[in-house]
Amino acid sequence: MQSLTRAVRACPLFQASSKPPCAKPPCTSASTRLSAVTERAFASSTRSGGPLPKSKSAFTSPRASQASVKPSHLRAQLSSVSSGGGGSGSSTRRALLASITAASVFCTFAPRSSAAASPFGAGSDGGKMSSSSIGANTGGGASGDDILSRYPGTALSRMENCRDRAASLKEEQLSGDWEDVRGLLLWAAGLRDLRDVPSGRGNTGHCFNDFNHVDATTMTLDVTDNENRGKVEGIAFGNKLGPGIRVASLPEAGPGGTWCTCALGAGQEPPADVAHLQFQSAIAWKLVWVPAGGFTRFVLVDETGKQLATGVPTGRMPGVSERQRNYDTMKGGRFARAADAYAAEL
């Protein structure tokens, strides 16, 4: 009994905070499950005809909306059962012991109350576990497990969401004025349109606006501060992007963050660009200009090179030399295949 007492009192549910470790459904916290167990223990003692606890609140917190367990009540019951006192019958003690034993099991799996919260608010934790709990296949024949084994910095659910956003864009939407089209691209990437903040602090005015910053890279928050350190040729040695990623990323796109990373090295196989080397992340999609008709058409392709969307925008697009250099950067690799296919038809 003493060892059981120590186990239960060591449980994080018995710490000072009574806030459930999970803030939003469908997550079911250990404290919620424990409340259900104690409810059954209360009902069992009632049916047995034994002496009742002073009140039902001896088992559960009166704050039913939080479904939390009140530590002081269970401590009191624990002391009573441990000593065999309190005047309760054997049936009540058995019910309470079952409740406490269940509590010790649940506490084994319960997260500590000190677990770090996401900078994007409740429900948007950017850790690897939250990012990897998705469907088995992410499209294009590459499974989530395959992608994570190669690129463990990938925020998989965010990648799926941003890829689906890109695929939802119709050609007519992507064939309007470039300013409007670029706004849609930022949305599809999970990025805010920020132009009045300093460079490196979340400014996205350059995103998809030159030959190089064309990758919608969706990464877990724990890799956002990774530095290049010479991994990608032609990129700054430090290339510190973390602060800007955290400011500019739209939380509703999913756990993790996004940046329009540099495509230099994307023509190699495997890709040797910033997404895949600096952040060890797959991309949601990449913008590639088609090498025909004056580079007026672009395609959006996913991690496997599969086309998601296309458009022929108007207005003040990146210059022709930028668009051509963009294709030259992808040439020979998987990301150029869709653009090559369009060019072959013209």
Distance between the termini: 81 Å
Taking the sheet with the most strands, its summary is: 5 strands, antiparallel
- Give helix % range: 25-40%
* Spatial sequence of strands, sheet with the most strands: 2-1-3-4-5
Q: Kindly state the number of beta strands.
A: 5
What can be said about this structure in brief?
With 346 residues, the chain is of the alpha+beta class.
Notes on the structure:
The protein is of the alpha+beta class and 346 residues long. It folds into two domains: 2-109, no CATH class; 128-345, no CATH class. The chain is 37% helix and 8% strand. The chain has twelve helices and five strands. The protein has helices spanning 2-9, 30-48, 71-83, 90-109, 128-132, 144-150, 156-168, 178-189, 242-248, 274-277, 320-330, 337-345; strands at residues 213-219, 257-262, 283-289, 298-301, 307-311. Strands 2-1-3-4-5 form a five-stranded antiparallel beta sheet. Strand 3 (283-289) and strand 4 (298-301) form a beta hairpin. Helix 2 (30-48) runs antiparallel to helix 4 and helix 3 (71-83) packs across helix 4 (90-109). The chain is globular and about 45 Å long. Mean pLDDT is 72; it is low at 1-88 and 99-139. Residues 42-89, 118-146 are annotated as: Disordered. Residues 57-69 have a biased composition (Polar residues).
